[in-house]
Amino acid sequence: MSDAYSPPDVPLSVLHADHEIVVLDKPAGLLSVPGKGPELADCLLSRVQDAFPTALLVHRLDRDTSGAMIFGLTPYAQRHLGLQFEKRYVRKFYVARVAGRLEPKTGTVDLPLIVDWPNRPRQMVCHETGRAAHTDWRVLRANDTETRVRLMPKTGRSHQLRVHMLALGHPILGDPLYASGPAGDYPRLMLHSEELRLKHPDGGRGLSFRAKAPF
Question: In terms of pTM, does the model score above 0.90?
Answer without folding.
Answer: yes
